[in-house]
Design goal:
Number of helices: 3
Helix content: over 70%
Length: about 80
């Protein structure tokens, strides 16, 4: 269940980056440039956090989720 959430957040953040990067001008001086750089840094933090959660899920948690799914299916 959590893997789906991580994947959804990754796709949404990639979608936002796809639209935002052409409109952000990093080379501009002043507040506009600072905003563009900080927005990109925060977007990369979001992507890195979701990738970490997706790739480094403990195996015990995955086994627990799969056993719960099989138990639910056997009762129905």
């Amino acid at each position: 269940m959590k893997k789906n959430r991580y994947l959804l957040c990754l796709l949404l953040s990639a979608f936002m980056l796809y639209f935002a990067v052409p409109r952000l001008s990093v080379s501009t001086h002043g507040l506009e440039g600072i905003f563009a750089i900080s927005w990109l840094v925060f977007a990369l933090f979001v992507i890195a956090g979701n990738l970490t959660g997706l790739l480094y899920t403990p195996k015990k948690q995955l086994q627990k989720l799969s056993s719960e799914r099989t138990k639910k299916r056997s009762f129905h």
